Amino acid sequence: MDFGATKTSGEVFYSPRDGATEEDDGYCMAFVHDWKTEKTEFTMWDAKTMEQTPVLTAETMLRVPNGFHSFFIPED
């Protein structure tokens, strides 16, 4: 993904959609940091299409440090 000249991403992680039956039926997610504004966004892309335009972008209330690791744990 191209985040732009002033943005970098942390680790990208994957979460399946509810009821997913195919390996790529879910979302790729990452925290994206903008070095110019010092703000962080949580961003999601459709894993099946991997289109450049995210399906969701949400600004976080606090800056998430670069290198922050995360993962998905499904509910049972």
Commentary on this structure:
The structure is a single chain. With 76 residues, the protein is mainly beta. The chain has a domain of 47 residues. It has no helices and 5 strands. Strands 1, 2, 3, 4 and 5 form a 5-stranded antiparallel sheet that branches.
Task: Give short descriptive properties of this protein.
five-stranded antiparallel sheet; 37% strand; mainly beta; 76 residues; 5 strands
Give a short overview.
By secondary structure, the chain is mostly beta strands. It has strands at 7-9, 13-16, 26-34, 39-46, 56-59.
Per-chain topology:
Layout: E1 7-9, E2 13-16, E3 26-34, E4 39-46, E5 56-59
Our Rg estimate from Cα atoms comes to: 13 Å
Contiguous runs where pLDDT drops below 50 for at least 5 residues: none
SSE series: EEEEE
According to DSSP, the number of beta strands is 5
How far apart are the termini? 32 Å
Shape: globular
Class inferred from helices and paired strands: mainly beta
Note the main sheet: 5 strands, antiparallel
Helicity range: under 10%
